[in-house]
Amino acid sequence: MKHTHILILSFIAMALVISCSKEVTEPNNTNTARSTTISNLPADTGKTGHFTFFRLSDSSFVELSDSNTAKWDLGFASTTIIVNSGVRGPGQGAAIVLRQTDFNSVTEAPETGWVTETQLAPPAIPTGSDNGWYHYDGAAQTITAIPGVVLLIRTSDGKYAKLQVISYYKDAPQVIDPNDKTRMYTFRYVYQPDGTKKFQ
Amino acid sequence: MRKFFLICCILVFECVLLKSSDKTVHISGNVYNQKNDDISYVTVKISDLKQTVATNSKGYFSFPTIPAGKYNIRFSHISYHTLDTVLDLNNNLDDIKIVLYPSDKKTDEIVVTSTRTYKHLENLPIPADVISDKDIENHGILKLDGALSEQLGLNVLNNHGSGVQLQGLDADYTLILLNGEPVAGRTGGILDLSRFTLGNVQRIEVVRGPSSSLYGSNALAGVINIITEKPSIPLGLKTSLRYGSNSLLDLTGNVQYTDDEHKLGVDLFINRYFTKGFNLKETNLGQTVPEVESYTFNTDIFYNFSLNTNLKFSGRVNFDNDKNKFTVIASGDSSLVNTLVKNDETNFSIKFNHKFSDKIDLEARAYTTSFGTKTNSNYAATGEFYSDYSFWQGTKKMEIQSNLYSFLFANIITAGLGGEIDNVEAGQIANGGQSANLLYGYFQYDSNIDSNFNLIASIRYDSHSDYNPHFSPKIAVSYNPLTNLTLRASIGNGFKAPDFEQLYLDWTNPFAGYSVLGVAYVEEGIRKMNDQGIIDTLFIQPKNISKLYPESSFSLDFGFNYYYDKYFEFKANAFRNNISDMIEFLRIGIKKNGQNLHTYTNLNRIYTQGIEAKIKSELIGNFMIEINYQFLQTGDEDVLDKIRNKKIYKRGSTGIDRPVQEVEYGGLFYRPEHSGALKLQYNWVDENANISIRALFKGQYGWADLNGNGILDDKSEYAPPTVIWNLTASKELFSLLTLQLGIDNILGYKDIRMLSVSPGTTFYINLTLNLNKY
Fold it and tell me: Is B412 helix (H, G, I), strand (E, B) or coil?
């Protein structure tokens, strides 16, 4: 009698918490446009406060002395990424932060929503955790690219590109150690040289 | 049937009489318990002869003349198992030794925390546990965090000090009491449990489930009450010394005095603790755990004016210095900075109790507590100032409580009324300091509807100067279908008031540059920031930011206690807590430096649910085994909503960003799904020695977000399961001195990343001199 009571109670309790688990389904990898991957782009590793300038059309670095020209499309300094327009440069640069999407499924850039560098801060691509491209985790003390975020870039000369940050750490480690060398961007992008907004 | 039985008995009785009518013998002996103490007032009955005697104060009994023969003899006592034995008495039998074993626990554990009145633990409708001074001693535990980490369903975490997670809820949802009064001084919501030395602690009561209906704010997951020793012996002196790894040196001294009439009692306690700390990472200049030197003074005094009127005073002062160092890198140069943290804490309470009659008593309580912390950092090379920080908080409280007995069908009706004033002073608090006040009342109805059914209903109302008022009701019932089985269920509400930071913070992170404003200060703060021209965009106008509500819970709990005498104990408990109005950061704007501007709002809803179970057994002689286990599931309802609406993404194994699926969500961080402990102890009663080994198991738990989406959804985000084994061996020498050797974390488990506060294996030796017996 005593034992039946306990048994019944145990079973009720167990039934309450047992939940059925389901399988995780991954979408198929639909490879579209070939992208260019840049590894270990240094973004002010010496903490001098200067940007590293980069041109998308030929994947090349631009000298710091050319910062006031339209030769560059993107500037990197720690977690900040700028485009070439307004207070930053003479170009036509602009950006859009797309969320909850996948790099491959972005096939066309929108007509509207382009943000230029009208002021020093906040820049066109917002800074601060979860505002732009990165998330800062207090427990792990790491900076990680937010999944589902794709940056649409209008270059200095009015062409379009889509870009995805992969890592902020040297050699893009799978598991980040907070002591890993930071300010070393790995990203991939697709550049459309014909001036249209299509990435197919 | 009964008649037939009676006839049989008479027949047997007559046979016995006939058989042994000529010769008489005498029989005598002593009755002891397991520990060889004499037991007085044991009823010794030879039912065949209808003769009964009782043992005297030495446990001695005798039957001087009885007819020779074979008899059934029964030894019975209210606190012990009845013993029946058959003796064939043809000759005199003297000096027989009878050992009785204590009966079920009904006479043992009385708890006070669950209801603010004295109740028996085992048939209480509210799940509770007691950690005794014996357990603390046998397990070689110095500090409160150590004692709690071995308990059912308590998960001690280290972040801003050692805090305890109860029923899957964070440390700030558990109220910590010292002799029934709340302790101040939480940093980041966590009250550092390692501040409490246990040398003078008589017992620790742990109550699970919401208790806000009696205690108000923070008693949401439960209440932990530290009860210090009350003077009880004419004169006693106890002192102990411990030396261990990392230059641990702990010294305690305790003096007790009570006068002959038991009118006045005084207990004085002093403790000094020192550890050099340790460093797990060779490359770090600073230490993982700092050097700590701390002192605790405690006194408990009672004075009984009469049997019905008494006064109690309790005071505690604790202060400590923590030394550490770290490196700062400025314009490429790194320099060493020394930092000194000074904490001080005080608690003083006076309780005046008067019993007007058997029907009514009254207690008036006054309590004051404070906590202060100061950090000073200076460059090691030059001694120049680097930074400082200070925080001080104090509470003054008055309360009266009255108990009415046997009134309106109730056992006890309890009513209380109180008020408190809270003060805080800190650089990051608006205007350097703030003050707030609270008024409250509570009522409890405790009734035994019949002898097997107990109902306790309670409610409390809190009215605070800076947040919305709150009602907290609770109903708990218990039912005993069998003497040893208690079924219980409760439903209740708990709450956590917004803390000082959530109300009055005015702080900008000096490194990252983002700012946080408390809700009661946000209008003024934004006006000042606008005047300075440092705000870029505001998403919400400050006048539209609403006053905070306390975080509030709805909790269900049911379970049972089962005792098989003293040898076996089985307790289990299923719970569900829904917390709503969780206070979270609310981003209200962007500053000109590109960083965020935050305040707080009532936002999230979380749940925790699970099962706690404990089996304790002393089935085999002096061997004790305890197993406890907790199954836990948690989640954030708002995150679940976002996942269902495909708002949260992750990079899948095929490299494609896709919405997180519900099955991938692992709930809240730092919650192991499975956790538990195995405790084994063996006592050599004759040798006054024991050995105890404990394995503390923690299953894998979410450690941090590593894939950028802010939630726990990936295998890499879990910390691995751990088992930590602790061992202690104690032996009493010359009956005054106890020697104890201990090894903590025998297998030397350490994890720099996730378990930074375990230095690996540590050893200690402890000597206790106890003159309390003389």
Answer: strand
Q: How far apart are CA B497 and CA B437, in angstroms?
A: 12
A:12-71 residues touching chain B, CB 8 A cutoff:
12-14, 16-17, 19, 21-30, 46-47
List the single residue in A with minimal CA-CA distance to B561: A6
SS3 B531: helix
Q: Do B259 and B111 fall within a single domain?
A: no
Considering the domain architecture, whether residues B61 and B135 belong to the same structural domain is answered as: no
Q: Following CA atoms A167, A168, A169, A174 in sequence, which dihedral angle do they give, to the nearest 10 degrees? A: -30
Between positions 160 and 179 of A, the ones with CB within 8 A of B are 174-176, 179
Domain ranges of chain A: 41-192
- Condensed to tens digits (0 to 9), the pLDDT of residues B70-83 reads 888 888 776 677 78
Q: Report the chain A residue with the minimal C-alpha distance to residue B594.
A: A122
The verdict on residue B678 lying in a domain is yes
Contact call for A140 and B704, based on CB within 8 A: yes
Residues 6+ apart with CB under 8 A from B686: none
- The 3-state secondary structure of B118-170, one letter per residue: CEECCCCCCCEEEEEHHHHHHCCCCEHHHHHHCCCCEEEEECCCEEEEECCEC
* Total number of domains constituting chain B: 3
Q: Cβ separation of A147 and B651 shorter than 8 Å?
A: yes
Using CB atoms, which residue from B536, B609, B654 is nearest to A122?
B536
**What residue of B is the nearest CA neighbor of A126?**
B594
State CA B35 to chain mean position distance: 29
Task: Tell me the nearest-neighbour CA distance from B333 into chain A, angstroms.
Answer: 11
The string of pLDDT tens digits covering residues B158-176 is 766 788 999 999 898 999 9
Residue at B333 is within a domain: no
Residue A10: phi and psi, rounded to 5, are -60, -40
B638 within domain boundaries: yes
Give the range of the structural domain holding residue B54, as residue numbers without chain letter: 2-99
Angle at B436 between CA B432 and CA B438, to 5 degrees: 165
Cβ separation A47–B609 shorter than 8 A: no
Q: How far apart are CA A139 and CA B670, in angstroms?
A: 10
Interchain pair A135, B708: CB under 8 A: yes
Task: State the ipTM, two decimals.
Answer: 0.83
CATH of the domain at B63: 2.60.40.10
Whether residues B459 and B411 share a domain: the answer is yes
In this complex, which of A14, A103, A137 lies closest to B657 when CB atoms are compared? A103
Contacts of B657 in chain A (CB under 8 A): 101-103, 147-148
**Disruptive mutation site among B333, B488, B611, B706 for chain A (greatest number of A CBs within 10 Å):** B706
Which residues in chain A touch residue B536, judged by CB atoms under 8 angstroms apart?
Answer: 119, 121-122
Residue A165 is encoded by which pair of tokens? 């940050």
For residue A119, give the chain B residue with the closest CA: B592
Q: What is the CA radius of gyration of chain A?
A: 23
Q: Which of B99, B132, B154 is the last residue before a domain boundary?
A: B99
Domain edge (last residue) among B49, B68, B99 = B99
How far is residue B726's CA from residue B708's CA, in Å, rounded to a whole number?
A: 37
The closest alpha carbon to B338, from B283, B284, B375, B293, belongs to: B375
- Are B116 and B48 in the same domain? no
More confident residue, B751 or B27: B27
Least confident of B165-174, B493-502, B565-574: B565-574
What's the predicted TM-score (pTM) here? 0.82
> Searching chain A, which residue's CA lies closest to the CA of residue B648?
A100
